[in-house]
């Protein structure tokens, strides 16, 4: 082992490309962060096509936003294709944003208790928005009396 001038052992500097040693713990390791990272990439690509397709169809092919009203939505949601499109856009956008905000909370919330409560608030609000949005899409009835 190398020593410094005063006889103390020299610090060991690992090679730049050596594998990183992770601390071992009794907890089982998961790949959640890897899957979250992959989800962000896949959902981002899908959202680009869904949202740009939505904007193109609504604003160019269907005559612009001045045409959008209750009757327009009722006619559009008569088709399962458009209900599925809108539901997929809602769920992917909400989960994509939730995952991004979860990462921000993990990065900036210093206290574990603060991090826990912020993430619980995030998950509850996400569940509420997705549930209410899906409820509207699935139970929409144009024949309101």
Verbal overview:
The chain has 145 residues and is an all-alpha fold. The protein has one domain: Fumarate reductase/succinate dehydrogenase, transmembrane subunit (3 helical TM bundles of succinate and fumarate reductases, Up-down Bundle), CATH 1.20.1300.10. 65% of the residues lie in helices and 0% in strands. The protein has four helices and no strands. Helix 1 packs across helix 3 and helix 3 packs antiparallel against helix 4. The radius of gyration is 25 Å and the shape is elongated. GO terms for molecular function: metal ion binding. This is Succinate dehydrogenase hydrophobic membrane anchor protein. InterPro entries: SQR/QFR_C/D, SuccDH_FuR_B_TM-su.
Entry summary:
This protein has helices spanning 32-61, 70-76, 80-108, 112-139. With 145 residues, it is mostly helical.
Break the fold down into its secondary structure elements and pairings.
Blueprint: H1 32-61, H2 70-76, H3 80-108, H4 112-139
Helix pairs in contact: 1-3, 3-4
Describe the largest sheet.
none
β-strand percent reads under 5%
CATH superfamily: Fumarate reductase/succinate dehydrogenase, transmembrane subunit
Instruction: Give the helix level as a range of percent.
Output: 55-70%
* Shape annotation: elongated
Protein name: Succinate dehydrogenase hydrophobic membrane anchor protein
Main location: membrane
Subcellular location: Membrane
InterPro entries: SQR/QFR_C/D, SuccDH_FuR_B_TM-su
């Amino acid at each position: 082992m190398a020593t410094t001038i005063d006889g103390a052992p020299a610090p060991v500097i690992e090679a730049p490309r050596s594998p990183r040693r992770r601390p071992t713990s009794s907890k089982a390791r998961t790949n959640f962060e890897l899957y979250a990272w992959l989800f962000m990439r896949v959902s981002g690509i899908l959202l680009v096509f869904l949202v740009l397709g939505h904007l193109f169809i609504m604003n160019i092919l269907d005559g612009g936003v001045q045409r959008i009203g209750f009757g327009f939505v009722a006619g559009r949601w008569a088709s399962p294709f458009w209900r599925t499109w809108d539901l997929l856009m809602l769920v992917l956008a909400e989960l994509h944003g939730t995952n991004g905000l979860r990462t921000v909370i993990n990065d900036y919330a210093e206290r574990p208790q603060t991090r826990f409560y912020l993430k619980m608030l995030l998950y509850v609000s996400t569940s509420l928005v997705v549930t209410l949005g899906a409820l509207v899409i699935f139970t929409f009835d144009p024949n309101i009396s």
